[in-house]
């Protein structure tokens, strides 16, 4: 009887570990001027260029309201136009009037208190820093 109970308990843990949670891992982003749904995934390394000046952007505050802020402008090396980054790059300290090329990684992190996956950018290396 003990063995049967232990087997049932072990099966329960194994099946619960294999179950998928209802996690929302897609976000709507503007890509080349069009809103597009994209999946948030882990990316170990990619380069971005950071503009020497920040841009005015709308950021969602913790209470859900939208406030005007200043955001870093970035673009991937193959892109023509800059995009605003509403968050920060962990480990990176922005200084105005410098153009940066950064090697960053993206980690998909579940937002606290919800099941929504958010991308978090983390600095791997400052590739270059050029005064403007």
Descriptive report:
The longest helix has 17 residues, at 2-18. With 132 residues, this protein is mostly beta strands. The protein contains 1 helix and 9 strands. Residues 1-23 have low confidence and may be disordered.
Explain the layout of strands and helices.
Layout: H1 2-18, E1 26-31, E2 34-39, E3 43-50, E4 55-60, E5 66-76, E6 83-85, E7 89-90, E8 98-110, E9 117-131
Parallel strand pairs: 7-9
Antiparallel strand pairs: 1-2, 3-5, 3-8, 4-5, 5-6, 8-9
Outline of this structure?
With 132 residues, the protein is mainly beta. It has one helix spanning 2-18; strands at residues 26-31, 34-39, 43-50, 55-60, 66-76, 83-85, 89-90, 98-110, 117-131.
Helical/strand content category = mainly beta
Order of helices and strands: HEEEEEEEEE
> What is the terminal separation in angstroms?
76 Å
Number of strands: 9
**What composes the largest sheet?**
7 strands, mixed
Rounded mean pLDDT score = 77
- Low-pLDDT segments: 1-23
> How many DSSP H or I helices?
1
Binned, the helix content reads: 10-25%
- Radius of gyration, taken over Cα atoms and rounded to an integer in Å: 20 Å
- CA-based shape: globular
Assess the beta-strand content as a share of residues. Answer: over 45%
């Amino acid at each position: 009887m003990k063995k049967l109970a232990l087997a049932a308990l072990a099966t329960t843990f194994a099946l619960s570990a294999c179950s998928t949670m209802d996690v929302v891992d897609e976000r709507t982003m503007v890509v080349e001027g069009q809103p597009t749904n994209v999946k948030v995934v882990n990316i170990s390394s990619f380069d971005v260029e950071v503009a020497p000046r920040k841009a005015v952007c709308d950021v969602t505050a913790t209470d859900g309201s939208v406030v005007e802020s200043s955001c870093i402008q970035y673009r991937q090396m193959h892109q023509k136009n800059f995009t605003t980054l509403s968050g920060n790059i962990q480990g990176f300290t922005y200084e105005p009037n410098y153009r940066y090329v950064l090697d960053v990684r993206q980690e998909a992190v579940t937002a606290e208190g919800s099941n929504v996956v958010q991308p978090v950018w983390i600095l791997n290396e400052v590739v270059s820093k050029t005064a403007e």
